[in-house]
Amino acid sequence: MKPTIMILGSGHLANPGMDGINYKMDDVLAPKRQREIEQLVTQLKTFQPTKIALEQDPSRNAEINANYQGYLADTYELKRGEGDQIGFRLAKQMGHSKLYGVDYWPEHDPFFPDDFDSDLIDPDKFAKEHNQEHFLPSIEDLHVDSDVEFHEEEDGRVWIEPVKYEPIIDMYIRHNDPEGTRADHQVYLRISRVGIGDHYPGANWVAHSWYARNLKIFVNLTRITESADDRILLIIGAGHVFLVQQFLEDSGDYIVESSLKYLKTEDVN
């Protein structure tokens, strides 16, 4: 028997704008959105997770769990992020005492000292200087339906804004579609091609930042696994799903369940 992990790929409900491509949500604290989130949590509960892992660096575990204990004591108001809105709610319903940060996002990465030449891992800069922008992410890479509008900011960040209302569960079904997660992964492989001759800024960034980060997320998941009976729910940005799932499956140490098995479209008034 092996421990089981389910990955819930997510858009960032708090709209932090931290990614190259961002999905613009309306206010998840609005009453209808809150009912939809409660419905989503009810569906995820059928997975019966024994642990819930979040896209947070383990160094923030004390802060995360202080907030969670405050939530249990009705002294902490849930923020808009998916960790609070989904993770905290589900952990409470499951009777969990804590949640686990498993991301790798330290304030100071020891692999990149202060005097590190950042151009070595800057595919954006290199591509723009060497006519290789076709290797960078673009609106054409987005696998969403036609009922959306795109807005690009001066710094290159793209915002996807739905024209029509999309229920929360429908959004999660879309984020976790295998074709979509593979397409997201292919974008990173294309970025890796940025470079000329002995210069590999694209491959350097994908390997040392993106692949390494996701591999460390996998390692952090193994570190919180204590039993073959563990059923771990990982709530993480949808772009991470393909690689983390690949690492879990290739390890041979886990059963990986699809979140689509538990997500069903339902009307919410």
What does this structure look like?
This protein is α/β, with parallel strands linked by helices. It has one domain. It is 39% helix and 14% strand. The protein has helices spanning 31-45, 61-72, 82-94, 123-129, 168-175, 178-191, 201-224, 241-251; strands at residues 4-10, 21-23, 51-54, 100-101, 148-152, 158-162, 231-237, 255-258. The protein has a five-stranded parallel beta sheet, with helices on both faces. Strands 2-6-5 form a three-stranded mixed beta sheet, with no helix packed on it. The longest helix has 24 residues, at 201-224. It starts with a strand and ends in an 11-residue tail after the last strand.
Defining key terms:
single chain, 269 residues, alpha/beta, five-stranded parallel β-sheet, three-stranded mixed β-sheet, 8 helices, 8 strands, 39% helix
The assembly state of the depicted protein chains is single chain
Summarize the biggest pleated sheet.
Answer: 5 strands, parallel
Shape: globular
Please state the CA-atom Rg, rounded to the nearest Å. Answer: 19 Å
> Helix/strand/pairing class, anyone?
alpha/beta
Strand order of the largest sheet: 4-3-7-1-8
Q: How many individual helices?
A: 8
The whole-number mean of residue pLDDT values reads 90
What portion of residues belong to β-strands?
5-15%
Distance between the termini: 42 Å
Q: Which consecutive residue ranges, at least 5 long each, have pLDDT under 50?
A: none
Give the helix proportion (percent range): 25-40%
Order of helices and strands: EEHEHHEHEEHHHEHE
Q: How many extended strands?
A: 8
